[in-house]
Structure formats: structure tokens, C-alpha cells
Amino acid sequence: MENLPSFNIIIILLFCYVTQSILWQTSAQDLPCRTTCGSIQVKYPFGSGHGCGSPGFHPYIACSPEGDQLLLTTHTGSYPITSISYTTSTFIITPPHMSTCTSMQQSPNLGLDWASPFQLGSSTFLLLLCTPPTSSLNIKGSPVCDTSSYLCASIYTCPSVIGLGLPLFPPTNTCCVYSPANFNSKGELDLQKLNCMGYASVVSLQEHPTDPSQWQYGVELKSRGGALDDYYVDNKCNTCEISGGVCGYAPPVNSFVCVCSDTINTTMDCNTRSLQNQPELAWNSVSLPSRKLWMGFLGGLVFVGAA
Ligand SMILES: *[C@@H]1O[C@H](CO)[C@@H](O)[C@H](O)[C@H]1NC(C)=O
């Protein structure tokens, strides 16, 4: 009876050890490069972090530390990426301060970094709460606004215009359809210079051209130069992805690597390397924790026996 307390302690220690080993094993199975971030599928040239995807996309694109949002970060802020089209090399960001039909607000400038491989795609900007009349709004003498468009009249039917301090159904001469939009020399949509307080950006009218509550809001961006990266890397990466790996790059020269597991990177693909020496590595990485676990268990038994 008197050795019961020490037996309890051993059971507790053993339990802690087993729990820790299981946790260790689970986290070891996560790839250093993620294939999804939130609801977004992350594939080359996009990457979830340093060493993943294309080196040109880092540090602009990364998965948030919480792992729930793929973010584009520029000198003006961080913007959630809401969709990626790998076939057209385009993606859509939804800046948190952008106005939509359900919520209108003043916005800071939106900008892209010149050094980043991204440029504006084909979304239509609606500049809001500008100094009237917007028909005379110009950049170096050229008119900025498409005054023939009905989009301003449509978006000003959204009740959320009161969020900008406008009355319901405001006059449309404070709104401007700016398309194609140009960013200034700092790479920004310069709202201050244009004397506007906010903007909405529309990716698609979704077959409801006069119903702004049905439009798809967001800023479409495309990868500069059309094709996402060079043909050679594209080809290698394709093979890597088909074999279950994630494309990445490694120092010192950011050369291509195929990330197959947390312990295995190859310059080829995951199948090719498994023909060489994966069984041995896989045995080591899997057996190590379970071997430790068994030794801990046996040690515990010996201890109990001795006590
Ligand atoms: C494999 O590559 C990824 C991405 O570059 C890196 O994070 C990871 O540390 C590398 N793993 C090994 C074992 O070299």
C-alpha cells in the first residue's frame, strides 16, 4: 500500500510523456510549406511562407500567422487574397477599408510595391465622395472619370452611402468611374490627390449590372509578365506537385526544391527520391518517437517493479 503514491506519479509522468510524443509526432507530419491557407489552395508560384512557392512572391505573399488568410502585404497594408486563378495568373484581394454595397467607409491609399511582381488587373474602380463635379477631375489635364457609365448611379442606390456621410440617393457628381485605373509614381491609388475619400472596386457585375448588391467586389491583380514564372521551373514544379510535393526554393541562390515532407527536400520530385533512400529516412523519422515511447514505458515498469 505504501508504494501507491510513487506508482501514481509514474503513471502521471508516463501519461505526460505519451501525450508529448503524440503531439510531437503530429506536428512533425505538417509540411513546412502549406498547400492550403484558410480556404485558399496554395500552389506555386504562391507560397505560404519563406522558402515556399516562388522566391519572387516572397515576402509579399504569405499565410497569416493564424493560418486562416493568405495575405498580400505592400507598403500600404496587408490585404486578404480571396481567390486565385492559376490558369489566368490573376488573383483577387479584398482590402479591409474598401467600400462595397453593404458597407461604405473612408479608405486609405491602396498601393502595390514596385519591386513586387504584381500589377493591376481589370477591375473597375469607383471613387467615392469626391469633390464635385467629378466630370472635371483630371490628372495632368486628362479627364479621369468615365462619365458615360451608369455604375455610379447604381452604387449610390446602396443605403450604406450614409456610412460616407452622404444622404440616401446622393447626387452622382461626387462619384467617379475610374477604369482602367493607374497608380501614381509611388504605386498608389492616390485618393488624396484625386480629392476622393473612398473607393469601391468591382471585379465582376455578375450579370446584374444595375444591382450593386450582387456585384463581386475586390481588386484584381495579375502577375507581371503574364506567365507566372519561367518555363523550366514551371515544368519541374508541375512534376513535383503531381508527386505530392510543394514547390519551394532554398538558399544560397534560391534554387528550386520540391518539399516532400518536413525532413525531405529534393531537387526532383517526391517519387524519384522515394526510389532512392526514402524508406530508410522514413523509418528513422517514424520509429524514433515510438522507440523513445517504448523505452519510457519499459523504464516505468522497471521503476514500478523496483518500488
Ligand atoms: C525544405 O525546404 C523548406 C522550404 O524552403 C524549408 O522550410 C525546410 O526547412 C527545408 N527542409 C529541409 C529538411 O531542408
Automatic annotation (TrEMBL):
Residues 227-262 form the Wall-associated receptor kinase C-terminal domain. Residues 33-93 form the Wall-associated receptor kinase galacturonan-binding domain. It is found in: Membrane. One of its GO terms (molecular function) is protein serine/threonine kinase activity. It is a single-pass membrane protein. Its EC number is 2.7.11.1. GO terms for cellular component: membrane. Keywords: Glycoprotein, Signal. It is an enzyme of class 2 (transferase). Residues 1-28 form the signal peptide. It comes from the Eukaryota. InterPro entries: WAK_assoc_C, WAK_GUB. It catalyses: L-threonyl-[protein] + ATP = O-phospho-L-threonyl-[protein] + ADP + H(+); L-seryl-[protein] + ATP = O-phospho-L-seryl-[protein] + ADP + H(+). This is non-specific serine/threonine protein kinase. It comes from Populus euphratica (Euphrates poplar). The lineage of its organism: Eukaryota, Viridiplantae, Streptophyta, Embryophyta, Tracheophyta.
